[in-house]
Amino acid sequence: MPGPIRWPAWFGGQTPVAYGADYNPEQWPEETWAEDMSLMAEAGVNLVTVGVFAWARLQPTPQDWDFGWLDRVLDSLADHRIAVDLATATASTPAWFTTRHRQAALVTDQGVRLSHGSRQVWCPSSPDYRQASLEVVERMASRYGDHPALALWHVSNELGCHNAVCYCDQSAESFRAWLQLRYGDLDNLNWAWGTDFWSQRYSAWEEILPPRATSSFGNPTHRLDYIRFSSDELRGQLAAEAGLLRRLTPEVPVTTNLMLPSAWADLDYSRWTDQVDVIANDHYTDSADRRRHVGLALAADASRGLGQGRPWLLMEHSTSAVNWQPINRAKAPGELQRNSLAHLARGADATLFFQWRASQAGAERHHSAMVPHAGPDSELFRQVKSLGADLARLAPVVGSETVAPIGLVVDQNSWAASRLDCLPSSRLDFSARLRAWYEALWDAHLTCDVIPSNADFDRYRLLIVPHWSLMDLAQADRLRDFVEAGGHLVATFFSGVADANQRVHLGGYPGALRDLLGLRVEEFRPLLAGEEVNLSDGSKGTLWSEPVQVTDATPLARYLDGPSASYPAVTVVRRGLGAAWYVSTQLDSAALGELVDQVADQAQVPRIDAPADVEIVVRRGPQAQYTFVINHSEEDVGLRFNGVDLLTGDSGPVIVVPAGAVRVVEQRPS
Ligand code: GLA
Fold this sequence. Notes:
Blueprint: E1 18-23, H1 31-43, E2 47-50, H2 55-58, H3 68-79, E3 83-87, H4 95-100, H5 127-144, E4 150-154, H6 169-183, H7 186-193, H8 220-248, E5 254-255, E6 257-258, E7 280-282, H9 292-306, E8 312-316, H10 335-345, E9 348-353, H11 379-393, E10 401-402, E11 406-410, H12 412-418, H13 430-443, E12 448-452, E13 462-465, H14 473-484, E14 488-492, H15 514-517, E15 519-521, E16 532-534, E17 540-542, E18 548-550, E19 554-558, E20 568-575, E21 578-583, E22 586-587, H16 589-602, E23 614-620, E24 625-631, E25 637-640, E26 644-645, E27 654-657, E28 662-667
Parallel strand pairs: 1-2, 1-9, 2-3, 3-4, 4-5, 6-7, 7-8, 8-9, 11-12, 11-13, 13-14, 14-21
Antiparallel strand pairs: 10-23, 15-18, 16-17, 17-22, 19-20, 20-21, 23-24, 24-28, 25-27, 26-28
The structure holds alpha-D-galactopyranose.
């Protein structure tokens, strides 16, 4: 079993923090390459991703192959002691392919077939694409499998970024085969989809189409199954490429770059992880998000959570602005360092950027890079070099694991379903709710793994489970076992409502969780935009309310007004050695914070005391523990530590972290 990165021999067995970027030398004249190599050395770059969009240069026509230029790039990188994360080059098809194989191009739900001219226009169910792409993979693996620079295979690129769903006839055929495997016979499908509603019943497999544009609301489970099918089709591409690579080069680890958390809504990543040796993620902060460092932390905790706590690779982030948001904000001084090291704190063993040199042409010409348009004589490149020096000092951290006693559970199926129509409220916004709980934990200096709902729960003392609406009874049993064995659980409104196929559990909400939570709800009473309800503990609720009837749960707060006035709003019940909380409205952020404090105390989650807006995360290794302190506030802070800061050499008992700065304190057992 290969390790996460197979570092070339010249690293002498030492494992550095991987530092680098996507390197796209094909966009530049060859004279530039020599300068690239020397600037990479100056910046401390040790790993670059090569070849992501190079298919058209590697196979310029159906008959011609040209690997000469890539040979020279890889040889030169090896000469400069820079390792390569080699992409399979299958992310974007050449124009000749899209022209010859029109049926391999994506079709929208309106039946429009897309044209060549952007990237990732291929249909995940296309046999022509599968065949052509595997030929590229085979040639890449045969040619470079033994190359001294090769450290890691990078399958495709952000699978599903632009082609998550295709509605073409080939997809329809694959969908039917997928459904036959899932349901066996049509009666099962008709029952699962509830097709006796609106005369939707199917009498032959051929009648089933992708959920293309139709007159009114489509069948919800038809639509949900199509999302699941589409995720599985992309997983199929990943599995085909990874399988071929493993057959040809078994000793080289394989990864692919995911897009957590945003793409998780549609892509069931927990079913992809068995195909990779290490989780890799791409993350870009949102210019419009005032607390974008919290969004970044969530993405990092999800990357770690998906890999069950193991270190992972940050495959892409940006040195400064991106090009695809409405307004592309440049990063403030220090933000580059804070962003990169926050990922590292949360378990990344690599911090790579998109991309090495800012493109001169093409759609991404206004995207930042390690070497900006201004060239190396620039503030940005100086920051890049300084980060490289920091990372060299942080090598001892590699391989250590981030300490996270809390699991924030994401049920991808429920997230996907929450984006469909015909729900009690269109305002639920799963991703905003996830962020609200995450932010409450972040503000309380509590580190959580953001985990899929099929993860191992036993690692955690406390599980927070927002809006797990589609829950089979067996899944509810897992939560009950967790609580009875001493775990603490927080469940929220619109949970346990229906089974995985959206068939509602009868007898009252929250269906599958009714007994565990000790309560029953007869109807949902969602709130209108701007509507606010007062609770007996002085807090406020928005978005949702429920007339909660307790069976044996204890009310902690009641609704004072609004559609559920006088009913309990927040409850708790003891079960076995643990306890289960229920929150039936969207609490204001102060109340959410207080609840998180209270629950964490009862779950006996260890706490680190620190000022507001100071991020504290601990990674623990066999020899030492590393406490990352990232000061997002405008005040300098002094924290008591018996240890040494790896970045400055400062040592305790008090380590000062200036506003905007980062410290990484190494503590060894005395
Ligand atoms: C994604 C892609 C890259 C590039 C960046 C721009 O992460 O993988 O190729 O387009 O976005 O932010």
